[in-house]
Inverse folding.
């Protein structure tokens, strides 16, 4: 093949962004990539400590953004009760970003919130950008056609100092989901049912492009949810090619290009989608019509099933290690095989996290809760202070409060409990988050992952419930 024809070879969106960011390729194939945006959170303090030890500066403070999310209190007055260590984490982020001249949305800032909610909402996440953050759910940003992945602590230091990162090239997986999602279902059901089907290790070593009519039909919020869960299928990143919906969603956001620059950007972004005959290393297709409202019953996101199903029997699992994991999960969760999922009672609900705390998620939960009272306590935590204000303008906070739920502040909150908001030991929580391993929401906590509508339905009935039953006769 001559050089010329090689240059014209069809490319996937993954190849295009990779090529555009490669500075140098090493003999072993690893590439040094340019980083367009680096988001730092409280946990990124290790990186700043390394800079301090070397007397180094942040190479590109203008491309680095601080977001306080994991440790910030999300309940009124809670900061006064937070242990000194937690307060220090929040303070350190503020001090480090101030010292290095990095824009930061710290505690109390009107744009504060979870990095993966704030950055897209502020127009910091844009198609074609290479984005990193010391957090595995950085995959979320792929929903806008960005190449975004989580990095480790030493990599955070490397990016802070050089604005570049060494990476080995991932294999490319295209996951097509065609057909129409049934009414009342969401991107969360899509993501959980994909993981239930393919497992948590399936996409390891791959970058995913989600394609197909069911993915195109998702709102941008839905695509963010879908890409957020990529990491739970083993992939470090998942993306959706940008389209007109993406461009309209980005238009006018504070950090997005404005006016003529925005029109010029759209012209560039239109070149990003995979070429028609581009080759992927692996292709997979799923039918959206087969997707049902999905909940997890165990301690892995792949321990998921349709709400209408019964808890599967480990005895029917042919892979011994999987059967053992199922037994252990059922034991930890205090459940048994054969039980109808709708018979599983819950002690509380949590609606929030970078998976499902955007305005559309809160609207979906409110649609179920409106005019109803929750049987169990629960916390609703908007993903950002901006989402919080918007929800309050729409009166969603009143719906949650009238239902007896708590209306909290923005942050990771009970998704991981680092700020002190934990699920008490032994309690079972219907949660809109993305991880359900043992103790994820606090020591001895039991997590069932589901969509916002499903979590709201569980709040109303006190047990896992098909949210569609509670939406019948209501305005969509
Ligand atoms: C604490 C943080 C680094 C972690 C992550 O990398 O994802 C957290 O956000 C999570 O969801 O488990
Ligand atoms: S909301 Fe949860 S999943 Fe998302 S970054 Fe925070 S801790 Fe991680």
């Amino acid at each position: 093949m001559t050089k010329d024809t090689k240059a014209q070879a069809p490319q996937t969106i993954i190849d295009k962004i990779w090529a555009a960011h490669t500075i140098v390729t090493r003999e072993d194939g690893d590439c040094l990539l340019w980083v367009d945006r680096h988001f730092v959170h409280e946990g990124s303090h290790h990186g700043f400590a390394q800079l301090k030890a070397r007397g180094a500066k942040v190479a590109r403070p203008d491309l680095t953004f601080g977001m306080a999310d994991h440790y910030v209190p999300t309940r009124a007055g809670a900061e006064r009760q937070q242990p000194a260590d937690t307060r220090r984490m929040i303070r350190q982020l503020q001090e480090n970003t101030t010292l290095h001249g990095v824009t930061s949305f710290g505690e109390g800032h009107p744009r504060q919130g979870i990095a993966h909610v704030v950055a897209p909402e502020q127009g910091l996440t844009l198609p074609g950008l290479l984005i990193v953050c010391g957090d595995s759910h950085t995959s979320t940003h792929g929903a806008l056609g960005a190449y975004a992945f989580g990095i480790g602590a030493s990599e955070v230091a490397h990016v802070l100092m050089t604005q570049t990162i060494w990476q080995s090239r991932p294999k490319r997986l295209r996951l097509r989901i065609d057909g129409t999602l049934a009414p009342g279902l969401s991107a969360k059901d899509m993501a959980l049912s994909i993981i239930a089907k393919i497992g948590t290790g399936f996409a390891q070593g791959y970058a995913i492009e989600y394609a197909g009519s069911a993915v195109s039909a998702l709102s941008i919020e839905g695509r963010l949810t879908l890409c957020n869960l990529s990491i739970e299928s083993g992939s470090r990143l998942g993306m959706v090619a940008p389209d007109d919906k993406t461009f309209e969603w980005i238009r006018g956001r504070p950090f997005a290009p404005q006016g003529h620059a925005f029109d010029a950007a759209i012209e560039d972004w239109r070149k990003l989608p995979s070429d028609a005959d581009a080759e992927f290393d692996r292709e997979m297709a799923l039918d959206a019509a087969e997707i049902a409202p999905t909940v997890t019953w165990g301690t892995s996101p792949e321990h998921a099933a349709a709400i209408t199903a019964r808890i599967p029997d480990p005895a029917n699992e042919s892979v011994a290690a999987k059967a053992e994991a199922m037994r252990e999960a059922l034991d930890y969760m205090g459940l048994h095989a054969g039980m109808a999922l709708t018979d599983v009672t819950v002690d509380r609900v949590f609606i929030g996290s970078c998976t499902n705390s955007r305005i559309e998620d809160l609207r979906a939960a409110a649609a179920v809760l409106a005019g109803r009272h929750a049987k169990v306590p629960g916390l609703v935590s908007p993903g950002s202070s901006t989402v919080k204000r918007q929800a309050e303008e729409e009166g969603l906070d009143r719906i949650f409060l009238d239902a007896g739920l708590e209306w909290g502040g923005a942050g990771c909150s009970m998704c991981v409990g680092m700020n002190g908001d934990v699920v008490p030991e032994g309690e079972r929580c219907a949660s809109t988050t993305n991880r359900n391993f043992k103790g994820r929401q606090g020591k001895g906590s039991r997590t069932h992952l589901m969509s916002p509508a499903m979590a709201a339905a569980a709040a109303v009935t006190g047990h896992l419930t098909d949210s569609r039953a509670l939406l019948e006769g209501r305005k969509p």
